[in-house]
Specification:
Layout: H1 21-28, E1 32-36, E2 39-42, H2 44-63, E3 67-68, E4 74-76, H3 77-83, H4 85-88, E5 95-97, E6 103-106, H5 111-121, E7 130-139, E8 154-164, H6 167-187, E9 193-196, E10 207-213, E11 219-224, E12 230-232, E13 253-256, H7 263-269, E14 278-285, E15 288-295, H8 302-309, E16 314-316, H9 319-326, E17 343-347, E18 356-359, E19 365-370, H10 372-375, E20 379-382, E21 400-415, H11 417-421, E22 425-427, E23 433-435, E24 437-444, H12 445-456, E25 473-477, H13 483-498, E26 503-505, H14 512-522, E27 526-530, E28 538-543, E29 549-553, H15 557-567
Parallel strand pairs: 3-7, 15-17, 17-20, 25-26, 25-27
Antiparallel strand pairs: 1-2, 4-6, 5-6, 7-8, 8-24, 9-10, 10-21, 11-12, 11-21, 13-19, 14-15, 14-16, 18-19, 21-24, 22-23, 27-28, 28-29
Helix pairs in contact: 1-12, 2-6
């Protein structure tokens, strides 16, 4: 392929607003072009990378007998009404109407669509298990799209769905998909971790998130420094180590505390540590009030609370709700004077607190000498807090560390979450109607470009692994007006292509410095430069990743490239 015939609009400087290294380099190297906030055009080089990633994905999906399909991106809203997600998914959902005033959405994911397909086409367990997948743009109206392809309003995704008659088949397919994903990410040259993830808006039970460590990552990965334990921050646990003091419990005492509202103010007022103050936070879970108690130096983990309650809608109570259900104002909420409808949850460490301080449930008052197990009843204790770096890993091996990561894939055991709502039933072995058991498996394909670029790039530009690089070899005749150089370049191009290499030949009328800078920026694995020594039958070969160069005779180029290429990752 001649470079003069390709659209590769390289830039000397990154456009304003580009923050992440991957975003800057993909813009500068002419891989992507912003069309609007959070929406990008994939230019020829990027599309070739994407095509190579898709080829690897399709090969691995074929190996586990997954069927490729393609669903519409514009979906009838009534399907999402059936599942209940039309009202719970949130403001990221793109909604629209057609000329007949019928409601539609732009698909952010396709659980409902595939479930309805199975409902309408599969009637017996004999046709199961079945795995269907697609590679397609998805749409989510992100409030703050950022970092280029990392957080977009339109993005490329591979989403797969499995349908089984029982949990045994689901578990087998889940394991097969996990292994296939590992093979995919190994092949594309990505450093990644598998971590415990949160199902979020997808629902279901078990889930594994694949995360690529990167400074620009928006997720916090919590991992043990001595074991394989790793989890998303929202799902991370630490080993519970009781620190209850063996002291006498004092009588509960109400104390006037005007203008003392924050945990810091309470600790200062009573001349104590924040760890001896109870933090009381009122939430609304599916429109029902829930009070969560944690130690004052800890933070409530909203995801843990939401999952514990199996809630769809979950948010902080507003001032009116605090008044209605806690009979006070923010800053004085506590496990006293509550409305009968309030569910009380407390973190495990709260029951270890002795003679603590807590909101009294009335304005400008706190209780001193609060002991949870003595002073309140009908409270449920569990892990409701955010873990902290340095705590003991939940498996007891090592301590917890933090790192940043990019979520690149997520797999879920959905169970019958969608099949029950959409009546996707089949006849089982006993002739009875039974909802199909589902799994969901996604890969953020466009996100992979960001993750790989963040991990592989250097100060000069992108560096693509050979498995997904848009071309294998960048062939550069330094001076296209030099007949000898062009003759050697044309001969090498044909020889390399005949051996199965994809070659990008820079036949542009540009200075050598421009060509070399653009070559480093574009990031192909191997560069072959035909320069002044072409008249002697000698060319230079450079490995982009290491910067190593070697001069070889023209007749040895193909063999040398073959040897070097074999050793590349």
């Amino acid at each position: 392929m001649k470079q003069s015939k390709m659209l590769i609009p390289t830039l000397k400087e990154a456009p304003k607003g580009a923050e992440a290294l991957s975003h800057k380099l993909m813009l500068r190297a002419g891989y992507i072009k912003q069309v609007s906030a959070g929406m990008y055009a994939y230019l020829p080089l990027a599309y070739r990378v994407i095509s190579n990633i898709e080829r690897i994905i399709r090969k691995e999906m074929d190996s586990i007998n997954a069927n490729e399909t393609l669903m519409p991106a514009v979906l009838p809203a009534k399907l999402w009404e059936e599942s209940g997600r039309l009202s719970t998914y949130g403001p990221e959902l793109f909604k629209l109407k057609n000329r007949h005033d019928t409601d539609f959405i732009l698909g952010p994911t396709h659980e409902e669509t595939y479930t309805s397909l199975i409902r309408d086409t599969i009637k017996s367990y004999k046709k199961l298990p079945l795995v269907l997948y697609q590679i397609q743009p998805k749409y989510r109206d992100e409030d703050r799209p950022r970092y280029g392809l990392l957080r977009c309003r339109e993005f490329l995704m591979k989403d797969a769905y499995s349908f089984s008659i029982d949990d045994d088949d689901l578990n087998r397919i889940y394991d097969e998909m996990e292994n296939a994903y590992r093979d995919i990410f190994d092949q594309v040259g990505l450093n990644y971790r598998t971590i415990i993830g949160d199902g979020g808006a997808m629902g279901g039970s078990d889930s594994i998130e694949f995360s690529a460590p990167a400074a620009v990552g928006e997720d916090t990965i919590v991992y043990s420094d001595k074991s394989n334990y790793a989890a998303n921050l929202e799902m991370a646990k630490s080993k519970y180590v009781s620190d209850k003091k063996d002291v006498e419990m004092k009588p509960l005492e109400k104390v006037s505390t005007p203008d003392v509202k924050t945990i810091e103010q309470v600790a200062k007022h009573f001349d104590t540590d924040m760890s001896n103050v109870v933090k009381s936070v009122l939430f609304m879970a599916d429109e029902k009030p829930v009070l969560v108690l944690v130690r004052g130096d800890h933070e409530v983990n909203e995801i843990k609370v939401k999952n514990y309650l199996n809630a769809s809608l979950f948010d902080f109570a507003n001032d009116e709700q605090i008044k209605e259900y806690a009979n006070t104002v923010k800053g004085y909420v506590g496990p006293f004077n509550l409305d009968d409808n309030v569910t009380v949850l407390a973190d495990n460490y709260v029951k270890d607190m002795t003679n603590a301080y807590v909101g009294a449930g009335e304005n400008e008052a706190h209780y001193a000498n609060f002991n949870a197990e003595r002073d309140i009843s009908d409270v449920k204790f569990d892990d409701f807090r955010m873990v902290e770096e340095g705590e003991v890993s939940p498996d007891g091996s090592g301590v917890l560390k933090y790192t940043r990561g990019i979520e690149i894939a997520h797999i879920f055991k959905l169970g019958t979450r969608y099949s029950k709502d959409l009546n996707a039933n089949v006849l089982d072995q006993n002739g009875r109607q039974k909802p199909v058991v589902m799994g969901c498996y996604g890969i953020g394909i466009s996100r992979l470009l960001t993750a790989i670029a963040e991990q592989q790039a250097d100060e000069n530009g992108l560096i693509w692994p050979k498995s997904i690089s848009p071309f294998d070899v960048h062939l550069i005749p330094v001076n296209i007006k030099n007949e000898t150089q062009m003759k050697v370049a044309n001969e090498l191009e044909k020889e390399l292509e005949d051996k199965g290499y994809d070659v990008l030949t820079d036949d542009r009328k540009e200075r050598a410095g421009v060509k070399f800078a653009d070559s480093d920026l574009i990031g192909l694995p191997i560069r072959v430069t035909v320069g002044k020594k072409a008249s002697e039958g000698i060319v230079e070969i450079k490995i982009r990743k290491t910067g190593e160069t070697v001069e070889v005779k023209q007749e040895e180029v193909v063999n040398t490239v073959s040897i070097l290429f074999k050793d590349l990752k």
